[in-house]
Amino acid sequence: MPSSCKDIRAALADCLQSSECVLIQRNQPSDCLRPPLLDTLPTRCQQLKRGYGDCKRGMIDMRKRFRGNQPIAVSKELEGEKPGQLYAGAGFSRGDGVKATSGNEDEKVETVVGVDGERRVVR
Fold this sequence. Notes:
The protein is mainly α. It is built from five helices and two strands; from the N terminus they run αααααββ.
């Protein structure tokens, strides 16, 4: 198995082994992952199951084939960083001649007479 999903699979296995479904009710871990017993699992185990499914699905997703799955522990969003730009082109910065505003400036208001003769305010 590729290494990108091993960590989340191990975390799911640990969560299942310590869940009430396996310890007290003596069900198989595979049975606990199916619909009648799935609702009795803790939220953390349900989230890990969903994450593991997304990881496995990402292994065959053609859009992620070149970059590969990002490991869950190294995800930039979890570390507080903003993700990089997805599309080509220059990034936006304040140094491009855009004037910063404080929000307290006077607003320009123009009155325009429409074709039907009504006056409209354009901001």
